[in-house]
Every structure is written in C-alpha cells, then in structure tokens.
C-alpha cells in the first residue's frame, strides 16, 4: 500500500495514516512550488485560480521513481479540496502514473466542502479506474485516525 499526497495540511493527515498502517508514502510535488501568492484563491490571476478555471491546464510534477510501483495494489490519494474539487495536480498524477488494476482510495481535507463532489468528479474523469469511496479527514489527529 502506498499513500500519495500533496504537501499541505493533507500531508499531516497522511503521515498519521502511514504510521498507523506502516505504509510507504510518495509526495506529489510540482516542479514549480506554490508560493503564497500562487495559493491566493481571491486573486483571479493567481496560479491556483487559473489552474482551476482551465481544465486543460496541468501542473508539471517532480518525477520521483517509486521502487517496485507494480507491487502496490492500493493507492491512497490525499488532497486538499479547492472549489469543491481535487486540485488539478491530482489529475496530472493520475494521468502520468500506471493506475490500471490498482484500487484508489481518496482522502481529503477542506475548510468547508465535503469530499463527495471531488470524488465524483475524479470518478467521472477516470471511469476505468477502480475507485473506492473517499473520506474527509478534517482536523484529525493520531488518535482520530
């Protein structure tokens, strides 16, 4: 089992799960890291707003060689929910990794949205993948996980 997550609040949750399950982890990292200005969802010219508004705009990922990728059957994908969806970088990850035949288990954190819409959008965009229901893990700690 492997956990894939973005470097953010969600990564802290993933760390708790990884420790509890003794799993491996892989962090989705953009080639160009997000600055505070990039993450300003109020500024219509910020990177996250422009990525959100353009479905075809994908973020280039830092390539990480995951040893023995084929041996993993379950892939937990963690992300923050932005505008009720998974960030576009999750699409980039899905499109650049061999996920056919694996079970994908999404989990997320959010300031106010549920996970249902983001998981539904992922399932619709990638219907041939084996998705499980996702879980929102806001404000969890080691004991809550």
Kindly describe this structure.
- The structure is a single chain.
- The chain is α/β, with parallel strands linked by helices.
- 27% of the residues lie in helices and 18% in strands.
- The chain is built from four helices and six strands; from the N terminus they run E-H-E-H-E-H-E-H-E-E.
- It has helices at residues 9-21, 47-53, 88-96, 116-125, and strands at residues 2-5, 24-27, 74-80, 103-109, 130-131, 135-136.
- Strands 1, 2, 3, 4, 5 and 6 form a six-stranded parallel sheet that branches.
- Strand 1 (2-5), helix 1 and strand 2 form a beta-alpha-beta unit.
- The longest helix is centred in the first third of the chain and has 13 residues, at 9-21.
- It is globular.
- The two termini are 17 Å apart.
Observed structural traits:
six-stranded parallel beta sheet, 18% strand, 27% helix, 4 helices, alpha/beta, 145 residues
How is the topology of this model organized?
Layout: E1 2-5, H1 9-21, E2 24-27, H2 47-53, E3 74-80, H3 88-96, E4 103-109, H4 116-125, E5 130-131, E6 135-136
Parallel strand pairs: 1-2, 1-3, 3-4, 4-5, 4-6
H/E element order? EHEHEHEHEE
Mind telling me the C-alpha Rg? Answer: 15 Å
Principal-axes shape call: globular
Largest sheet: 6 strands, parallel
Unreliable residue stretches? none
Distance between the termini: 17 Å
What is the tally of beta strands? 6
The assigned structural class equals alpha/beta
Query: DSSP helix count?
Result: 4
Percent helix, as a range, is 25-40%
Q: Report the β-strand fraction as a percent range.
A: 15-25%
Mean pLDDT equals 84
